[in-house]
Structures are given as structure tokens and as C-alpha cells.
Design a protein that fits this description.
single chain, alpha+beta, TIM Barrel, eight-stranded mixed beta barrel, 18 helices, 25% strand
């Protein structure tokens, strides 16, 4: 026997339908007698009834396309004639109607029903066979095309974060680079200021002396300078000349050749005052060693010194570009700072900083993309125990790649902050699920709603889909239900094709207080409570939970129904249940 079904009809009473491989048998009670009528069935008619009975339901009818796919799978047929399904099911309906009419004289009783031409289900009221209702557990292989699209979307969904991180990296690197340049400028300019004031001050003091001055005074005045190597003093009136160093004074009546030897090794400066000419010289080697230590190829890499028309001196690497900055100090010395690739270096520093900041994120995203190729979805049914029909399917992610089990993969997604990305990808896949799955639930962590971009994506996918969704709001102890989160949950509940379920009810933030502010349709009781059948007053606790839910106008779903004992302990009031007991096949 393929299946046994019962139909309650006001005009007829109870109708029992038995479906065999090649026969349809209808039984009714008439005048205290059990009457039967039979009709021959073709193999395809019998198969179609079995498929619709197994997978179809009033709230989740199955499409012709799904019936065709299942029939071709079990029969091995690769092609069906035009309108084959429509004509075959019309024949079944006609044979059933004839059986009922022959037994009762009443017409119009339906067995195979087509709702709004969108799908089929059997008009049965009581299930007598485990093959008579849709399975509570379905594994869905995600299409390869959808996985590739999901990979693309996972990268695309990161573009805002990438842009934000890149902008932050540029801002931080710009600030850091500017600070380093400022520090470099401070040390260089301080050194220049000190040495320039030293040279100018010493030159002024020497112009107040003459070659006739005391040698000790001349040597002491020059020796106080940290920059001048020697000086040549000319008395304009007497034409006397003297060369002063820190340890000697030499006087000349004619041009001192000693002073003018190796001029390329010195920087010469002059000052005239009160009939005296003073010419000072500084070793170029000393200048280079003094300032080169402050220069760097990555920052200011060269300097030029200019003083009126007296001299122009360059230090460091030769740079052809324009000066980055020019500075005139109070002694009249003009200093130009050069750095050939400062802008490029700043950009490169930004990219390096971006790579450091985003490296872990990029690695995690790559690992997630690899996980996606082993990603599938398990649809676990929430069962209405009154009708033994699937109220809705909860979508659970499965991962079978990269050496990770599903729990490990979910833990990785939480730790790497990619759970929101995965939620959106899962929702994309569910929105394209075949019609026969009906209402589908998916988990939503409240922290995702804090991100306006993710929230708008979720709304877009749901509104663009013709599917019915149950959003199961999970508990997150790290996130409290702010006004913003509550508002967004209620916005979602206001969508035509959305219901809200509060998951993990009774734990953390998912408590009674939430029912006062959220428009929920279900609360889901954790399996720890459901399975604690040995506790005192277990049935009283279950009753109080149901009464509490009823006072708020919501239904209760008990998770973790693993066996018949738990089902029995829950009692008839626990209408909606979920667990292994219903998933066994």
C-alpha cells in the first residue's frame, strides 16, 4: 500500500482513501455499514499521489515542476509528454469523485487539490502513514552558480569596509608621515638656527676687532664659534691683513695665499663694518656631516642654503624636483627642503598600513570563500503536531570542507565577524528555493541590525522574493536590544511575507521583556528546557510557558524533541515541536 488517508466531509462524514500500486480504494460509513469502491490506477497516477502525499501540504503545495522532477527520478523517465502531469492528476480527481459518488451519491468532494494553479496537495485531515506528510528534514545542495555568485557577493559586501579601512589607513599614514616630517624639520631647523646665529654673531664680534687687537682676544673670539674654521680680517685704512684661527694669528702685508688655497673645500662668507672687512670660512665637510645625519631618502633627502648673493650650498642627494618647503631664518639664511617622492611614499605607507590592518580580515574572507564551496543547507521542519504538517522549515548551514565541521565553521564566522555576510548569502540562497519548501526560517543575530547596509540588503532580498520567511532572532549576550534594533525587528515583522520568532527564549536578553516591544509570532524554547523531563513539576513548567505565550498572543515551539518520551511529556498543549523524533525519515 502506498498510503492511507482520511478526509472529513460535512456531507459525507469520514472518508478513508487507500492507495495501492495499481488501485484506488475509497471507504465510507453508510447506514452502519462499511462500504467500499475501487478504481484502477496507472503506475504514474499512483506515483503522483504518493509524491503529493509525501511532499505537499495545504500551506506549502508543490509545483508541477517538482512533481515532474520527483517522478522522473523514481521512474527513470527522461522526458514527459506535454500536459502529462495535468492530465494524469485530472484523471485521479475524476476517479476519486466517481468512487465517492457511487458510494454516497454526493459530488464535489476533493482529494487532489490545486491552489490558485500554483501547486498541489492532498485534502486530508488525518495522517495514518509516515509517508503521508512532507519530511521534516531536507538537505539542500546549493547550486554551483549560486555559490559563485555568493563568493562575488561576499567580496562585494566588503567594499564599504575596504573603502573605510583604506580611507582610515590613508588618514593615519598622512598624519604619521606629517608628524615624522615635522620632527625631522624641527631638528634640522633647530641645528641650522643655532649654527647660523653662531656664525653671524662671531662675524659681528670680529668686525669690532682689528688686526692690531690682542692675539689672545682674536683667538678667543674665533674659538667661541662652533662653525667657523678661520677668518681673514682686513683693515681698510691701513691695508693690514691677518688670518685668525682658534690657536694662531698670522699677519700679512700682501695677499695671503694660504687663505685662498683649497677654496673648493670651504664655504666663504663676508661682513664689512666700521672700516673692517671680515671673511669667514667653514669646512664643507663639517657642514655635510652636521646635517646629513638628519636627512633620509624616505623624507627630506636634501637641503640648500642661500644667503643673499654670497653663496648657495646643497647637502644630501641631488633632487631635481621643486622644494617641498622654504624657510628664511632671522639671520637672513634661506633654507630649502627637498623630498623627491614624498607623495608616493605617503601612498605606499597608506597601503602598507592598510595591509597590516586588513590582513587578518582578508585572510578570514579567503578562508570563508573556501568554506562556501562545501556549503549546503539543511531544512529542519517545525511540526504542527495537531495536523502533523510542517509549519515552516528552519534553515541550518552545513559546511563540509577545509577540515571544519559545521559548529567549528559557525564559530569561525562569529570570531571573524563574517556572520552577517553569511546570513545575507544564506538568505539569497533561500529566496531562490523551490516553491515546495514553503515558509522558511533563518537565524538573525541582532548585532547585524546595527549595520544599516546589512539591514537594507536583508529587506531588499525579502521584498524581492515571493517566499514566506520566519526570522528567528537569536540571543547575543553582548548586544542589548536598543531602540534601533527593536525598531528594525518591527520593520521586518511589518513586511507582508515575514514572521518573527524569538529564538533561545528565556536566555539572556531574549526574555519576557522582549515580548512587550517586539511583534513576534513564535517563541522557541531551548532544548535544555525541553529535554529536562526528570525535573520536578516538568509538566507544570511546560504549561506555564504555554500560558505565558498565549497571554502575549504568540505560539510556542519546543526544540530538542528527540524521542517519543519527550513528545509524550510535553503533552497536547505543546502544538509546535522540532527535533530528531520528527527528522528520522
Amino acid at each position: 500500500m502506498r498510503g492511507k488517508y482520511q478526509i472529513q466531509c460535512d456531507r459525507v462524514g469520514e472518508i478513508t482513501v487507500l492507495v495501492y500500486a495499481e488501485e484506488l480504494q475509497v471507504e465510507v460509513e453508510r447506514e452502519g455499514q462499511r462500504k467500499k469502491h475501487k478504481s484502477k490506477l496507472s503506475k504514474s497516477e499512483s506515483e503522483f499521489i504518493g509524491i503529493i502525499g509525501q511532499y505537499g501540504a495545504k500551506h506549502t503545495p508543490i509545483s508541477s515542476r517538482y512533481i515532474e522532477a520527483r517522478y522522473m527520478e523514481v521512474s527513470g523517465t527522461s522526458n514527459l509528454p506535454l500536459n502529462f502531469i495535468k492530465n494524469t492528476l485530472a484523471s485521479v480527481r475524476r476517479k476519486f469523485s466517481e468512487c465517492v459518488f457511487n458510494l454516497t451519491g454526493i459530488s464535489g468532494v476533493k482529494f487532489v487539490v490545486n491552489i490558485n494553479r500554483s501547486g498541489y496537495f492532498l485534502n486530508v485531515d488525518e495522517v495514518k502513514s509516515p509517508t503521508n506528510y512532507r519530511p521534516a528534514l531536507i538537505e539542500v545542495d546549493v547550486d554551483k552558480y549560486l555559490k559563485i555568485k555568493a563568493v562575488f557577493n561576499s567580496i562585494k559586501s566588503e567594499h564599504r569596509r575596504i573603502a573605510k579601512t583604506l580611507g582610515l589607513s590613508f588618514l593615519v599614514s598622512l598624519s604619521a608621515f606629517f608628524l615624522i616630517l615635522l620632527i625631522q624639520y624641527y631638528y634640522i631647523s633647530s641645528e641650522i638656527q643655532k649654527n647660523s646665529e653662531d656664525v653671524v654673531g662671531t662675524m659681528i664680534n670680529l668686525t669690532e676687532l682689528s688686526c692690531s687687537s690682542d692675539d689672545a682676544m682674536l683667538m678667543k673670539t674665533l674659538g667661541n664659534s662652533i662653525s667657523l674654521e678661520s677668518a681673514l680680517i682686513k683693515d681698510v685704512d691701513s691695508n693690514d691683513q691677518c688670518m685668525v684661527t682658534e690657536d694662531s694669528v698670522e699677519r700679512f702685508q700682501s695677499r695671503p695665499d694660504k687663505w685662498y688655497k683649497r677654496t673648493s673645500s670651504y664655504l666663504y662668507i663676508s661682513r664689512i663694518n666700521s672700516g673692517h672687512e671680515v671673511h669667514g670660512r667653514i669646512r664643507l665637510k663639517s657642514i655635510n656631516s652636521r646635517y646629513s645625519r638628519y636627512l633620509s631618502p624616505l623624507l627630506f633627502e636634501s637641503l640648500t642654503f642661500e644667503r643673499l648673493d654670497q653663496f648657495k650650498l646643497s647637502i644630501g642627494n641631488k633632487v631635481e624636483s621643486r622644494a617641498v618647503y622654504k624657510d628664511t631664518i632671522n639671520t637672513g639664511l634661506v633654507v630649502s627642503y627637498y623630498g623627491e617622492n614624498i607623495i608616493l611614499e605617503m601612498v605606499l605607507l597608506s597601503l602598507v598600513l592598510f595591509s597590516i590592518i586588513y590582513l587578518r580580515k582578508a585572510i578570514n574572507l579567503t578562508r570563508y570563500i573556501i568554506l562556501l564551496f562545501g556549503f549546503s543547507i539543511k531544512l529542519e521542519g517545525v511540526i504542527n503536531t495537531n495536523s502533523m504538517q510542517v509549519e515552516y522549515y528552519e534553515a541550518l548551514s552545513l559546511f563540509k570542507i577545509g577540515g571544519r565541521n559545521t559548529q567549528g565553521a559557525i564559530g569561525f564566522l562569529r570570531k571573524s565577524k563574517l556572520l552577517s555576510t553569511h546570513t545575507i548569502i544564506t538568505l539569497e540562497v533561500l529566496s531562490k528555493a523551490e516553491e515546495q519548501y514553503g515558509s522558511i526560517g533563518f537565524n538573525l543575530c541582532p548585532s547585524i541590525l546595527l549595520n544599516d547596509h546589512h539591514f537594507s540588503n536583508i529587506c531588499r532580498i525579502i521584498m524581492d522574493s515571493d517566499k514566506l520567511f520566519v526570522i528567528e532572532v537569536t540571543e547575543d549576550s553582548k548586544v542589548s536590544y536598543s531602540d534601533k534594533i527593536v525598531e528594525k525587528i518591527n520593520l521586518l515583522s511589518g513586511l507582508e511575507n515575514v514572521k518573527i520568532a524569538i529564538d533561545d527564549f528565556g536566555q539572556g536578553n531574549n526574555n519576557v521583556g522582549l515580548l512587550n516591544v517586539v511583534n513576534a509570532s513564535y517563541i522557541k524554547i531551548d532544548k535544555k528546557i525541553t529535554q529536562d523531563t526528570s525535573s520536578n513539576n516538568y509538566k507544570d513548567k511546560i504549561t506555564k510557558i504555554i500560558e505565558l505565550a498565549n497571554s502575549f498572543g504568540v505560539d510556542v515551539i519546543f526544540e530538542g524533541v528527540e524521542d517519543k518520551n519527550i513528545k509524550s511529556m510535553l503533552g497536547e498543549g505543546a502544538v509546535f515541536q522540532q527535533g530528531y523524533y520528527y527528522n528520522r525519515g
